[in-house]
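Hi R.,

Here's the chain you asked about this morning:
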Amino acid sequence: MNILVVWASRHGATQEVADTVAEELTAAGHAVTIRPATDAPSPHVYDAVILGSAVYMAQWEDSMRRYITSHHDALLDRALWAFSVGLSGMPGGGIQDPVRVGPVLLKIQPREHKTFAGRLKPRELSLRERSIARLGGAVEGDFRDWQEIRQWAKNVASECSRLKAGDED
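And the predicted structure, written out as C-alpha cells:
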C-alpha cells in the first residue's frame, strides 16, 4: 500500500515518532512517504494517510491544521489514522474551541487516534513555552514509550495490509 505520513513538530519529538511509524510501515512492506505538514504533498495519490502532530495547550500544530483544511476532502476519501504527541490530558466536558484536537479530528474522522507521551527539554523551549510548562507542572524528560509507538505502527501496517488485500473497507 502507498502510505503518506505527515507530521508537525516544534522541537523534533513528534518527528521522531513519525520516523519510527514510517520505519515500521516500511518494514511491513508498504511504500511510505514521510513529510512535514509544511511541505507535504496532496494525499490524492496515496492509499492511506497517517497524521501526527505535537500538542500544545490541547491544540494540534498550526501547520497540521492548515494541511487538514487544505486537503480535507481527500483525507476523508483515504484510510486515515492520527496520533498526537505530548498531550497530557484534556479537561472534562465538551470543548467548544474548534482548533482543539478533538474537533479537528472529528472533521477528518480517522479510523483511530492514538495519544503518545512526549518529551520535554526546557532548554529547547521559548520563554513563553517554559513559563507555560512550569505553570502546568510539566516534568522534564523523555516519556515516549517506543515499544508502544512501534506496536501501534505495526497494528496500522497490518490494517493497511488487510485493506490492500481487500479484506476490509
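Residues 89-98 have pLDDT under 50 and may be disordered.

Let me know if you need anything else.
M.
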